[in-house]
Amino acid sequence: MKGASTLFQSWRTCSPRIPPGSFLLQTVKYPETCFCRNVQTVSYQIVKGSYIPTSQAVQPKTQTTVKPTPEIDTVGAFQKLPMVMPSVDILASALRKARRVEPTKGIANIARRERNRGAKQLDALMKELAAPLKAYLENFPKRKYLHPYERSLVELTLGDGVYEEVLKKVDALKRKVVVVGKEHASLCAKTLKKREAEESLKEGLEKLEGVFTSDGKAVDELMNIAKSLRAMPVVDLKTPTLCLVGAPNVGKSSLVRELSTGKPEVCNYPFTTRGILMGHIALNFKHFQVTDTPGLLKRSDEDRNNLEKLTLAVLSHLPTAILYVHDLTGECGTSPSDQFVIYKEIKERYSNHLWLDVVSKCDILQGSPVFFITDDNNAEVNAAPEAESYRKMGPAGAIHVSIKTKEGMNELKQRVHDLLLAQMDNLSSDELTSESLHP
Ligand SMILES: Nc1nc2c(ncn2[C@@H]2O[C@H](COP(=O)(O)OP(=O)(O)OP(=O)(O)O)[C@@H](O)[C@H]2O)c(=O)[nH]1
Ligand SMILES: [Mg+2]
């Protein structure tokens, strides 16, 4: 975690560190943009749950009893999750294997042979059921061993505490299987007659089957968790990343489609984008990542939905350069005045990120600024010269673009290219600093 925060701390400026006129010198030759991988458009269910900032990550209570939380500076844990078998398959396979177990050779007495067979089969069934559960429990990492970004994803996509709860249920099932299996194997081993041994075996098998059938849904829940976590976009922390941010419906996904060959969904309603979508751009033989994010509304963090929290998690935990999208046309549903408030807050909060502003939909942008009726509620703030100028032109230095007429798109591509190169420099120097600090 500390490694990741060092990355953020050492980003120097919030405005692009590209000499303002530098791209103009090359205006005739824009970089070729092409995608080497499509933007991942896998969506996943976002559930209600609170977002835990990294500052609240588990800290050791006392140095003597609790091991300190490790600093996690790598991602990719979800791709290493084990494949979980459906509970019915585990049960069927275990029953098949157990029934094949033969009694120990050389037992002549029928009753002794039968109780030996029964005890061995019950023991085998118990082990066959418990072994995969044990492996899952060992290979699903504890949340504190995840990178803060992945920790946020677990919480925001599965729900608060759901991950731990399901693992606990799997652990309880494993324990129950062991207890019931041992108990019945021992009962079977104590039988005196062939018939008793057969009945004891039958009863033990039924009991174990019953336990697994009734509580096995925990395994199926774990399987679904693994599926959704594995489907999360893969992020490479060492690759410069462009993150599109802005209010809902302002044209973020449309720009991702323009800047790349990825195809996130575009619709004329807020929160079309319902997850973090990751794409890769190849620019002049260099690779970059692009993330599309859900829109942010004007409200406090406590009131934010999990989609908005996902966007904040990306900005807080991943080293991204920000492409902030403003829609001043009055079409997106969030007034320019409200977008100004959101923008100011986000810019202040993530001032250590490289930054580029873009005003979208300039093909339908009117000459005079747009006001919403609700703007009267905050007349004083809206009358401030900065807010007034924002409503007319967007933030100082913003590029005006339209995906319909392609106006400004070449300039945007050039500036994005320069921004990502600047981020690449930052990442390399961060890596050097961290290497010299921790050789
Ligand atoms: N006229 C015009 N419409 C645009 C432009 N860019 C985007 N739109 C439209 O704006 C609407 C919203 O676009 P999206 O790209 O889905 O916006 P978004 O910010 O990703 O929206 P969410 O995912 O809901 O936050 C769509 O109907 C687009 O066709 C543009 O340059 N000009
Ligand atoms: Mg979108």
From TrEMBL:
It holds the Pfam family MMR_HSR1. It comes from the Eukaryota. GO terms for molecular function: GTP binding. Residues 242-339 form the G domain. SUPFAM superfamilies: P-loop containing nucleoside triphosphate hydrolases. Residues 78-236 form the NOG1 N-terminal helical domain. InterPro entries: GTP-bd, NOG1_N, P-loop_NTPase. Gene3D superfamilies: 1.20.120.1190, P-loop containing nucleotide triphosphate hydrolases. PANTHER family: NUCLEOLAR GTP-BINDING PROTEIN 1 (PTHR45759). This is Nucleolar GTP-binding protein 1.
